[in-house]
Amino acid sequence: MIAVVLINWNGAADTLRCLRVLADPGGRQAQVMVVDSGSEAANLERLRLGVARWGLAVELLQTGRNLGFGGGCNAGMRLALERGAEFEWPLHDDATLHPDACQGAAIRAECGA
């Protein structure tokens, strides 16, 4: 299984845009996790509402404070590994992805590329 670890810090609009692409991993089993690194309450609520409105299968992990990109990735990847992820794909909240990005990453991971 591939785990996508998306780091969010006060970037609900960007994070939701990225999640829309990640919502369909091309038939491959993927776990999508958003690590919120201490966002303001209003921004975090906007993120939650967007995820619920679109019915996205996303887990939200709140760190409670800004750990930076590296610290957020470490927290998310640690949890993903505990849950059996074989590959982790860390992303920043403003990543712009091609619609086939998750499928392509899964294929490359399976091939060892």
Question: How does this model look, in words?
Answer:
With 113 residues, this protein is an alpha/beta fold. The protein has a single domain, classed as Spore Coat Polysaccharide Biosynthesis Protein SpsA, Chain A (Alpha-Beta Complex). 45% of the residues lie in helices and 22% in strands. The protein has four helices and four strands. The chain has helices at 12-22, 41-54, 68-82, 101-111; strands at residues 2-8, 30-36, 58-62, 87-92. It has a four-stranded parallel sheet with strand order 3-2-1-4, sandwiched between helices. Strand 2, helix 2 (41-54) and strand 3 (58-62) form a beta-alpha-beta unit. Helix 1 (12-22) runs parallel beside helix 2. The longest helix has 15 residues, at 68-82.
What would a concise description of this structure say?
The protein is built from four helices and four strands, in the order E-H-E-H-E-H-E-H.
* Count of domains: 1
Low-confidence stretches: none
What's the mean pLDDT score?
A: 84
CATH class: Alpha Beta
The largest β sheet comes out as: 4 strands, parallel
Classified in CATH, the superfamily is Spore Coat Polysaccharide Biosynthesis Protein SpsA, Chain A
| Tally of helical segments | 4
CATH topology: Spore Coat Polysaccharide Biosynthesis Protein SpsA, Chain A
Number of strands: 4
Q: What Rg do the Cα atoms give? A: 13 Å
- Binned, the helix content reads 40-55%
Biggest sheet, spatial arrangement of strands: 3-2-1-4
Helix/strand/pairing class, anyone?
alpha/beta
Amino- and carboxy-terminal Cα gap: 16 Å
From the coordinates shown, what is the CATH architecture? Alpha-Beta Complex
Q: Which range does the strand content fall in? A: 15-25%
Overall geometry comes to globular
